[in-house]
Amino acid sequence: MSETLIRNAHSVLTMDDAGSEFAGADVLIRDGVIVQIGEGLTTAGEVVEAANCVVTPGLVNTHHHLYQTLTRAVPGGQDALLFGWLQTLYPIWSRFGPEEMRISALTGLAELALSGCTLTSDHLYLYPNGARLDDTIDAATEIGLRFHATRGAMSIGESDGGLPPDALVEREEAILEDCIRVIDAFHDPREGAMVRVGVAPCSPFSVSRELMRDAALLARDKGVMMHTHLAENDEDIAYSEAQFGCRPGQYAEELGWTGPDVWHAHCVKLDGQEIDLFAQSRTGVAHCPCSNCRLGSGIAPIRDMVDAGVPVGLGVDGSASNDSSNLVAEARQAMLLQRVSRGADAMSAREALRLATRGGAEVLGRHDCGQIAPGKRADLALWDVTGIDSAGSWDKAALLLAGPQRVRHLFVEGRQVVRDGLLTTIDLGATLAHQDTLALRLAEQP
Ligand SMILES: [Zn+2]
Question: For position 346, what pLDDT does the model report?
């Protein structure tokens, strides 16, 4: 039996149904699970003093392309819209292999962990030069984050009227075969799972109608979740109307892509009818505010979605369209962006943090994560509120208004992944040096 006691926290934001907050509370963890919250608790195990810290559930990232961490701020793509940005980056990504995939993922995961993330999904939709989903799962296992890998895919290349170059697309039969392989090899449906696998064709503009439909059938047969990009910007809507004769929501519904086992990234351009469809079907949304700003995609109607009952989580999106994997910064951006369009009372700091924790866990089907309550997994972020970022704050728990951008401590399944601001599981300096070498090599190739 292993126990850790987080003692005398400045405050504990539980994100339970009532939104309970406790000052001066202890949190007792046993064998990866939260067992008790209270005052004056004791343990024979490890004690972490938390008087300087606000304790929150670990943040949950619902959309990422970790492989893109090696291609941030690429000059030709810095100021492009989505489609132009993709066309700049596809040729660079086509030079990736297994080593680039693993180190890129490890770097992105390290940044996520330091920004409070304990559970992340990833959407890997290209597999050049022998790269496999396994490469990213290896990275997540090494660093110790809870990981929902999704087997993405592209099958419509340029010569068939799609956006990606032909060299980056795969045969649809091979895609489905590899989906089965990775689900059978890695997917863990049990409570407390550290790795789950989902099925995730890249987007309606890079795979066929048949693959969308078959992927949904396969995912439901295997009991795994489904993920894709949807309604990201005006170009995306125009493509849907021109190619499929309908809006993205209708396309998704027709092909089986609505339901509590589905979550879509972006959804910036969902209209009222589509929001109702998502609410009624409990279809999830991964809101990626920094990426939407970065690519000029627009402001997703998150206030309307949440009010209608759509499950919403947050995502940093790929590092190349953010260009950051800082999840607490993403939560702050989510709060700010709703205020731009709807006013200062459109989203509070606590509500944005709730989307970043409980909301994301629900979107990923993880009812065992996302809140601090007895019986839930011990995924916890401890934020030191005695530093410059919190100085002068009258409400230290309003972390997204004035608070640190990095955690002091991070626990995943009760294991300490960050201690005193440093990763315990990997050598970050060596990882950064390795990714530098790989990024340089990519930049030097023609
Ligand atoms: Zn994306």
Answer: 98
Average pLDDT over the chain, rounded to whole? 96
Instruction: Write out pLDDT tens, residues 4-48.
Output: 999 999 999 999 999 999 999 999 999 999 999 999 999 999 999
Q: Determine the distance separating the centroid of ligand 1 and the alpha carbon of 64, expressed in angstroms.
A: 6
Q: What are phi and psi of 247, to 5 degrees?
A: -80, 160
Cα-to-centroid distance, 77 and ligand 1 (Å):
15
> What's the pLDDT tens digit per position in 311-330?
999 999 998 888 899 999 99
**pLDDT tens digits, 94-112:** 999 999 999 999 999 999 9
126 CA to centre of ligand 1 in angstroms: 12
pTM: 0.97
Tokens coding 36: 């008790």
Any idea which residue has 């100021």 for tokens?
79
| Residue 398 scores a pLDDT above 90 | yes
d(CA 398, ligand 1 centre) in Å: 29
**Per-residue pLDDT tens for 216-227?**
999 999 999 999
CA of 386 to the centre of ligand 1 (A): 35
* Dist. CA 392 → ligand 1 center (Å): 37
pLDDT of residue 446: 65
